[in-house]
Structure to design on (450 residues):
C-alpha cells in the first residue's frame, strides 16, 4: 500500500523584494521589509500622515517575493494609483500613490536574501512550509518578552495553541494561562466578565466573581476573538491595559495586576477600526506584535507532517505507515474550510475506528464524509456529480442536489462551530433565525456537535 512523505526543500534563505516610501519630496524615506508598515493618521502607525482625509489606519505595505504588497485597510477615502482605486496589489516599479489628499512615493528595492528558520515546530504547532517556519522563528523571539501579541487567522487555524505555546516558552510559564472567549460573552455581561463583580452588583450576581486578570496573576491572559468585544467596553479594557489595574463591577477600589496579554481574532481588526467597530487605540495597544496564522489551504504541503504529529499525540504514530499515498493526495486536494481543526477531528475519528487496515482519514471530513473528497473530475470514486442523477427530471435532480448540499453544508458548519449557532451564523453570513430554520428542516440537533 505504501504512504506518501512530502518533503519540502528547507531553504535557509529566500529572496524578498522590498522597497521604500515617503510623503512628499523633502521627507525622509521609510524602508519597507517583511514586517508590515501601516500608513495612517493614528500616532501609533509606522508612517503617520497628518491629513484629515486619511483614515486612522489607511494602507499597509509589506515586502514579498514578488514585490511590495499594498493593501488598503478599508479606508474611508481609498488608496489610488492614478485614477485606479486599489484593494490589494503588488508593486514592482516606482510610482506615486494617493491616500486622502496626500501623495506617497514608492521606490522598489532589489532582491534581498532573507534567512528562514529550519525549525519544524513551536510547541504543539508543526509545519515545514516556509510560512510556518517563519512564524515559528518569530514566535520564538516574541515568547521571552512581555510584548502584547495579536494573533490573527481563520477559525480552526490554531490561534489558542499558538498563544499557549508562547506562554509555555515565556518566563511566565509556571504561572496561570487564563482564556477569555470574548465571542461567547453576552454584551450586557462583558464588563463583569472581564473585570469581575461583587455579590449583588446586579440582578443575578449571587456570588462574587474574580476578574480573569487577577486569576492570571503572574501569568498570561488570552483574549480570544477580541473583535467580538462590545464597543462600549473597549475603552474600559484599554484603560485597564494602560494602567495595569481593574475595578470590579460594584467594587470601590482598583486592584493592580501583573499579566502578559495575548489576543486573537478571526476578524480584520484594522478594517473594523475604519468602520468604527473597533477602537484604534485599543488595536495598537494589543498589537505591539502581530502574527497571522495561514489557513490550511495555503500550507497544504504541511498535511503529511500534521497527520503524523496528530497520530503521535494520540499514541499511534506507528499507524502512519497505514496512511496510503492515495489518502494523502486526497487530503492535499481538499480545500479545508475548517482548517487544522477539521484535519484533527478527521484524524481522531479515523484513529478511533481503525481496524488494522488502511487509515481512512479523508472519509471523515465533515460534510463530505458520505460523498468523499472532491477531485478534479467530480466525486472521488464516484464519477461526476451530474452522472449520479442521469435519468431523473432536471428539476427533481436540481432539488435533490440543493437539499443534499444544504444538509451537508450545515452539518459541516455545525461540526467546525462545535454546535454554536451564533458562530454558525457568523461563518455563513446569515441571521441566526435563518440558520435555525435550516437546522430544523434537515433535523440537525446542534447539541450532538458540542
Amino acid at each position: 500500500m505504501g504512504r506518501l512523505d512530502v518533503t519540502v526543500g528547507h531553504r535557509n534563505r529566500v529572496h524578498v523584494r522590498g522597497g521604500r516610501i515617503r510623503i512628499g519630496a523633502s521627507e525622509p524615506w521609510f524602508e519597507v521589509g517583511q514586517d508590515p508598515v501601516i500608513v495612517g493618521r493614528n500616532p501609533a502607525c509606522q508612517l503617520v500622515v497628518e491629513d484629515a482625509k486619511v483614515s486612522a489606519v489607511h494602507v499597509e505595505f509589506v515586502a514579498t517575493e514578488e514585490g511590495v504588497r499594498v493593501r488598503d485597510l478599508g479606508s474611508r477615502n481609498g488608496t489610488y494609483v492614478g485614477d485606479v482605486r486599489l484593494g490589494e496589489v503588488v508593486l514592482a516599479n516606482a510610482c506615486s500613490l494617493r491616500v486622502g489628499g496626500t501623495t506617497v512615493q514608492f521606490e522598489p528595492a532589489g532582491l534581498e536574501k532573507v534567512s528562514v528558520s529550519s525549525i519544524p515546530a513551536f510547541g504543539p504547532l508543526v509545519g515545514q512550509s516556509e510560512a510556518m517556519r517563519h512564524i515559528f522563528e518569530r514566535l520564538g523571539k516574541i515568547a521571552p518578552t512581555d510584548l502584547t501579541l495579536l494573533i490573527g487567522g481563520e477559525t480552526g487555524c490554531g490561534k489558542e495553541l499558538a498563544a499557549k505555546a508562547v506562554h509555555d516558552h515565556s518566563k511566565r510559564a509556571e504561572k496561570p494561562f487564563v482564556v477569555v472567549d470574548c465571542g461567547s460573552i453576552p454584551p450586557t455581561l462583558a464588563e463583569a466578565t472581564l473585570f469581575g463583580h461583587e455579590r449583588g452588583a446586579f440582578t443575578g450576581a449571587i456570588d462574587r466573581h474574580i476578574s480573569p486578570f487577577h486569576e492570571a496573576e503572574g501569568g498570561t491572559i488570552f483574549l480570544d476573538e477580541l473583535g467580538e468585544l462590545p464597543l462600549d467596553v473597549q475603552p474600559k479594557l484599554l484603560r485597564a491595559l494602560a494602567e495595569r489595574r481593574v475595578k470590579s463591577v460594584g467594587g470601590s477600589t482598583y486592584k493592580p495586576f501583573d499579566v502578559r496579554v495575548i489576543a486573537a481574532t478571526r476578524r480584520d481588526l484594522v478594517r473594523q477600526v475604519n468602520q468604527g467597530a473597533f477602537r484604534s487605540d485599543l488595536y495598537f495597544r494589543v498589537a505591539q506584535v502581530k502574527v497571522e496564522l495561514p489557513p490550511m489551504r495555503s500550507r497544504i504541503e504541511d498535511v503529511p507532517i500534521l497527520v503524523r504529529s496528530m497520530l503521535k499525540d494520540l499514541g499511534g504514530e506507528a499507524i502512519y505507515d497505514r496512511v496510503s499515498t492515495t489518502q494523502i493526495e486526497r487530503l492535499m486536494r481538499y480545500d479545508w474550510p475548517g482548517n487544522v481543526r477539521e484535519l484533527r477531528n478527521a484524524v481522531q475519528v479515523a484513529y478511533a475506528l481503525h481496524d488494522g487496515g488502511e487509515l481512512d482519514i479523508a472519509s471523515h471530513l465533515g460534510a463530505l464524509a458520505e460523498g468523499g473528497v472532491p477531485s478534479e473530475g467530480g466525486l472521488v470514486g464516484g464519477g461526476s456529480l451530474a452522472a449520479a442523477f442521469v435519468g431523473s427530471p432536471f428539476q427533481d435532480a436540481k432539488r435533490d442536489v440543493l437539499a443534499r448540499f444544504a444538509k451537508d453544508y450545515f452539518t459541516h458548519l455545525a461540526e467546525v462551530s462545535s454546535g454554536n449557532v451564533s458562530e454558525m451564523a457568523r461563518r455563513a453570513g446569515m441571521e441566526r433565525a435563518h440558520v435555525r430554520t435550516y437546522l430544523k428542516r434537515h433535523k440537525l440537533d446542534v447539541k450532538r456537535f458540542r
About this structure: DSSP finds 13 helices and 22 strands in the chain. The longest helix spans residues 394-416. Residues 1-11, 367-384 have pLDDT under 50 and may be disordered. The longest strand covers residues 102-115.
